[in-house]
What does this fold into?
Amino acid sequence: MTKRYGLIGKNIDYSFSRAYFAEKFEKLKDKKSIYVNFDLQNINEFSKILENHKDIKGLNVTIPYKQSIIPYLDSLSKKAIAIGAVNTIQINKKGQLKGYNTDWYGFYHSLKPMLKFHHKRALILGTGGASKAIEYALKKLGIKYTFVSRTKEEYNLTYSELTEEVMNHYTIIINTTPVGTFPNIDQMPEVPVHLLSNRHIVYDLIYNPEETTLMKEAKGYGAKVKNGYEMLVLQAEKAYKIWNKPFSRD
It folds into this structure.
């Protein structure tokens, strides 16, 4: 019997996951498992996916549905509850759905080896579903953080508030927005890159292109840069383990 896995998202032809798992199944000589993209224009189409594909064992979830998927699930892991976003769904034989978040795990383990003693504060660019997993990972690492977005809210900075003093204070910059993703590769968040130095880490969750404009500009001022590829690999491997472990509602 076929074991179907897949990705829930919008405009996901570029998907990392489909190619990654196709290669993984080939390496494992697993001819029963397949991985497909479910490109939804609206999250309310999700129920039809389950009705039409009774062989689904697990799913990944990407932008823009990491939060809006939650009401469709039967239960959540403790970490998914704490984060408030889901990127992995485990489905049991009775059709029950449990949500997990493995994004935080991928980010945590890809950032940790880069950290030096002076990396104590981070700016998180963006406030969407992806930023919630980053927030959780930074808490685990003991790194203080502030959100940056285009509009002013009570607990965040705007890009126009990123002064020299602020940029000296925050030595980790994490882009969780889609700005700079293919095909709009010339774009970048409005970060004052000229205020960066070799004390900074600039981590862009984007993986296509391999080097974003933000990374390129930051590197020019001495910052250490990283894209989201390793994070994706780590979260994907964690998701695969979840799909193939016993189902628990706890």
